[in-house]
Amino acid sequence: MSAGLLRNSFKEAASAASFVPTLLDQLPNAIVVFEVETKELVYVNPAAESSLDLSRKSLEGQSLFDLFSDNLPLNRMVEEVRMGGISAQRQELVIHSLPGSIHQESVQAHVVVAMLENPRLMMMEWFPIDQQLRSERDERVTQQVEANKQLMRNLAHEIKNPLGGIRGAAQLLEFELPDKGLYEYTQVIIKESDRLQTLVDRLLAPHRKAHVIESFNVHETLERVRSLVLAEFPHGLRIIRNYDTSLPNMLGDQEQLIQAVLNIAHNAAQALSEEIRSGVAQIEFRTRIARSVTISKQRYKLALDLHVIDNGPGIPEDISERIFFPLVSGREGGSGLGLTLAQTFVQQHQGFIACESRSGYTDFHIQIPYRTQEKVA
């Protein structure tokens, strides 16, 4: 039987008998089904598409060994199961992306190779070992950040009331002073009160403004951010567009997303001061679709996968675990609110934001569930 016929017979039999493809499509782990003799793929689930960064259409029909040709432990697992000594093999392996895919990377994964009821078919399933650890870490960070935000909101309200009284008292005192030379001191009180008032307003701002849902093009949003950043840094900085232009309009609060990305990109540009002077500074905006993602224990079929990547010095190690906390800044004179607000805006879209940083490479990764007008209707 040809691989094409085998592929069709697998789908027809599964559909008629147990709806296997439908079930496998919903699983979070990457799964491929392949023909025992030729190793040709006859089925790829969405999680495998996302893991390999290629579509099912381009993967089906390729050989398993085309995907992982240099992976001798995997080849050994397949052969041992094929020879019939055992029904399944489990092992921790390093999985490489398919050559030619967008993201060339390797991940440590737990891999299962097993025979199916159809003796002509085998299945390979894998998931990153750090996936569960990352999920648990993200949950802890989310809870900690939420507690910090609640603390800051309460503190901001407590500060706001006496600030007004301090400023008013300083103004009244200024009117009563017989010596105008003393105005300098009352002006210090008034100006510092105003500065603190602005800081408090920024802390409270995300929770005052209503969450506006509209349909918008994410690339138009990024172009607005790009224009704003380049207007402030017109020389020595290049902003690279790495867009998946096939993305449809998504539903969300466009102004919040603009502000979130702008805060990240602006921080990146400020950190690139040395690179800008040398004319080698660059920031990359990258958009993709992520399939079958889990965010805060909620499963989503599709998500916006947005990266803001720069080639700057990286985030100081002593604050790398706290960069999203309020008032934490790696730059002298920084308010430490830009990333806090960015995280708040992303979380209001049920998304998450994470950061990977080292010298010469910082990647802020945003994932937001992809909702479209059609799905709402």
Summarize the structure in words.
- The chain is of the alpha+beta class and about 375 residues long.
- It has 3 domains: about 130 residues, 2-Layer Sandwich (Beta-Lactamase), CATH 3.30.450; about 80 residues; about 160 residues, 2-Layer Sandwich (Heat Shock Protein 90).
- About 45% of the residues lie in helices and about 25% in strands.
- It contains 13 helices and 12 strands.
- The strands form 3 sheets. A 5-stranded antiparallel sheet has the order 2-1-5-4-3, with helices on both faces. A 5-stranded mixed sheet has the order 7-9-10-12-11, with helices on both faces. A two-stranded antiparallel sheet has the order 6-8.
- A hairpin with a 2-residue loop joins β11 and β12.
- α7 runs antiparallel to α8, α9 runs parallel beside α10 and α10 runs antiparallel to α12.
- The longest helix is centred in the middle third of the chain and has 47 residues.
- The two termini are about 45 Å apart.
- About 5% of the residues have low confidence.
